């Protein structure tokens, strides 16, 4: 059992994550973008596109236009999640960079914050009729998974203090392919297993939305309409004899008018 | 002043009865589509769906990355007007997404209904016909979506797929067929177009006292003007305006009886007809040997 949870599953789930993301990116990149469908106003240069992406990734301007409450909750959640993730680098890096050490306290507070927006997003799905209508099991599952991860992590920090040297030993062991089984509280196993579930679920679900944003034709394209856009799978037009006016018939009629048809 | 609309509470199937008239066989033949809905529509549609998913990254990506945040739910005018939840952009896309999941994703194949996947059956098709023709492809939702998901792309894909199986609406197919017969959406024939132009010439002479031409099919003019056909029929003031402008600027110009329509209804049907309708502008320009095309709606 312990071998499964601490050794096989971490490798398996990380493998699924990397393979899944690779697969998704491959399918998206393989599929052509035939037409220019950029949402205007849009930047004219690549530099402008990069600038807009920085905004999209950090500030969610479209969401700000749409729904202020949702924007606030979404931004708070993503920001706190990033800080917590960076804080967790201390279990993965040896020797420890000073900046990771520096954000430990901030990271802890960020951890306390995460359940609030997650609970709000969950409640919103249940209380707003439109949201209840569009929500599917996967939406609730993702939120519950995040809640489980955060709450178990916070409990480990507050009440069931885990000996972090053991945890770091285990993770570094996995990284260096010398896996070891640590002696830890069962709550840590809950924390670990829910994270591994998330890793394996990630590439097959909507959670890969950030990657998709970077390849979204309406966002990455430029508004350089003066330059011709060529459709890679374009094909020649074939005229249907059923139609009353074809180019040939038009050419015939032009000759009849005597309006410089001899040119 | 900023006008805000109250967001209506959802009313299940409130606009389900608002369905377009089906296309007529005589029009479908002219626009290279099956005369009537084909018997094996399911196979045809799924085959076309696979093709569309491989040809348009937009469609496949938008199917995959929607997080159902709900930012678009109160942005579509068709939802604000009807309260029908299937007119929310995300729900409209879901009509496509559930079929996509069922046949093209692992999660849909394994978990089925639990993962919102659904077979392409009669009731799904009925929803497609109803709700993909209650979208005006205005792309307002894409402005508000944090990932730029453009429901118009999905509507266009769904209509393309339905059209392949001979399912389309009378309004759109009739207009496209008319373009191939008369060169414009309104069905104004070449003689009527010329007569209208002569009539406007007279009118303009009466008003301004100046001889200003409305050239038709002039080979070798500098500019081919492609107006919306209504400008020569209903909004004639606009047509008179074009003539005055060209006269004042001293630019030689012409309209064409082969193509005098800037609006392209192929956009509301499928790629082949979109391309073909646009191609008429190029054909007209080549035949008339013009240097420039002025074209807009």
Largest sheet of chain B: 3 strands, parallel
Q: Can you tell me the CATH class of chain A?
A: Mainly Alpha
Structural class of chain A: mainly alpha
The coarse silhouette of chain B is elongated
Task: Give the helix tally of chain B.
Answer: 13
Task: Show unreliable segments of chain A.
Answer: none
Percentage of residues in strands of chain A: under 5%
Question: Total number of β-strand segments of chain B?
Answer: 3
| End-to-end distance of chain B | 27 Å
Please provide the ordered H/E string of secondary-structure elements of chain A: HHHHHHHHHHHHHH
SSE-based structural type of chain B? mainly alpha
Task: Name the biggest interface.
Answer: A-B, 62 and 70 residues
- Strand order in space, largest sheet of chain B: 2-1-3
**What's the tally of helices of chain A?**
14
Name of the CATH superfamily of chain A:
Transmembrane di-heme cytochromes, Chain C
Overall description:
The complex is a heterodimer of chains A (263) and B (297). Chain A has 263 residues and is mostly helical. Chain A has a single domain, classed as Up-down Bundle (Fumarate Reductase Cytochrome B subunit), CATH 1.20.950.20. Chain A is 67% helix and 0% strand. Chain A contains 14 helices and no strands. Chain A has helices at 2-30, 46-59, 61-66, 68-87, 98-102, 104-113, 115-127, 129-134, 137-158, 164-175, 186-201, 209-215, 217-220, 247-257. Chain A is elongated. The termini of chain A are far apart. Chain B is mainly alpha-helical and 297 residues long. Chain B has 2 domains: 25-168, Fumarate Reductase Iron-sulfur Protein, Chain B, domain 2; 174-295, no CATH class. Helices cover 51% and strands 3% of the residues of chain B. Chain B is built from 13 helices and 3 strands; from the N terminus they run αααααααααααβαβαβ. Chain B has helices spanning 25-30, 41-55, 57-65, 77-82, 89-104, 106-111, 122-131, 140-144, 151-164, 170-182, 190-208, 236-249, 271-288; strands spanning 223-226, 253-254, 292-295. Chain B is elongated, with a radius of gyration of 23 Å. The two termini of chain B are 27 Å apart.
């Amino acid at each position: 059992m312990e071998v499964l949870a601490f050794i096989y599953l971490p490798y398996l789930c990380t493998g699924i994550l990397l393979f899944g993301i690779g697969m998704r990116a491959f399918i998206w990149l393989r599929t052509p973008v035939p037409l220019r469908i950029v949402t205007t106003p849009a930047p004219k240069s690549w530099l402008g596109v990069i600038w807009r992406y920085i905004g999209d990734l950090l500030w969610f301007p479209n969401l700000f236009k749409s729904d202020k409450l949702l924007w606030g909750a979404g931004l708070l959640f993503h920001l706190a999640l990033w800080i917590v993730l960076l804080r967790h680098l201390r279990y993965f890096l040896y020797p420890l960079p000073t900046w990771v050490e520096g954000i430990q306290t901030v990271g802890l507070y960020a951890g306390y914050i995460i359940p609030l927006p997650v609970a709000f997003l969950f409640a919103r799905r249940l209380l707003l009729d439109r949201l209840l209508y569009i929500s599917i099991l996967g939406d609730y599952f993702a939120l519950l998974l995040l809640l489980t991860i955060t709450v178990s992590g916070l409990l480990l920090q507050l009440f069931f203090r885990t000996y972090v040297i053991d945890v770091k030993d285990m993770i570094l062991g996995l990284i260096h392919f010398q896996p070891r089984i640590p002696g830890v509280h069962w709550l840590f196993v809950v924390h670990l297993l829910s994270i591994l579930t998330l890793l394996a679920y990630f590439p097959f679900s909507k959670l890969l939305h950030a990657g998709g944003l970077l390849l979204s034709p309406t966002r990455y394209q430029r508004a350089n309409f003066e330059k011709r856009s060529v459709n890679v799978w374009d094909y020649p037009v074939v005229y249907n004899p059923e139609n009353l006016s074809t180019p040939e018939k038009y050419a015939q009629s032009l000759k009849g008018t005597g309006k410089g048809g001899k040119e | 002043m900023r006008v805000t609309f109250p967001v209506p509470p959802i009313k299940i199937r409130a606009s389900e009865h608002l369905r377009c008239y089906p296309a007529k066989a005589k029009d479908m033949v002219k626009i290279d589509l099956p005369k009537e809905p084909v018997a094996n529509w399911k196979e045809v549609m799924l085959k076309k769906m696979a093709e569309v998913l491989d040809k348009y990254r937009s469609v496949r990506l938008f199917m995959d990355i929607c997080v159902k945040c709900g930012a678009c739910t109160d942005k579509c005018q068709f939802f604000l007007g009807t309260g029908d939840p299937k007119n929310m952009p995300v729900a409209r896309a879901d009509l496509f997404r559930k079929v996509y999941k069922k046949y093209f994703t692992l999660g849909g194949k394994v978990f089925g209904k639990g993962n919102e996947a659904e077979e392409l059956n009669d009731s799904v098709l009925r929803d497609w016909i109803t709700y993909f023709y209650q979208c005006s492809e205005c792309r307002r939702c894409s402005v508000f979506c944090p990932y730029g998901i453009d429901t118009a792309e999905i509507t266009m894909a769904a209509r393309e797929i339905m059209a392949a199986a001979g399912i389309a609406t009378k309004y759109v197919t009739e207009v496209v067929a008319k373009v191939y017969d008369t060169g414009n959406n309104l069905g104004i024939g070449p003689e009527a177009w010329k007569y209208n132009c002569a009539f406007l010439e007279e009118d303009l002479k009466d008003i301004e006292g100046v001889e200003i031409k409305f050239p038709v099919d002039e080979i070798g003019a500098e500019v081919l003007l492609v107006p919306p056909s209504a400008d020569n029929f209903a909004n004639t003031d606009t047509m008179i305006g074009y003539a005055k402008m060209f006269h004042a600027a001293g630019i030689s110009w012409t309209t064409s009886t082969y193509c005098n329509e800037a609006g392209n209804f192929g956009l509301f049907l499928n790629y082949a007809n979109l391309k073909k309708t646009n191609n008429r502008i190029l054909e007209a320009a080549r035949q008339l040997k013009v240097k420039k095309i002025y074209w807009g709606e």
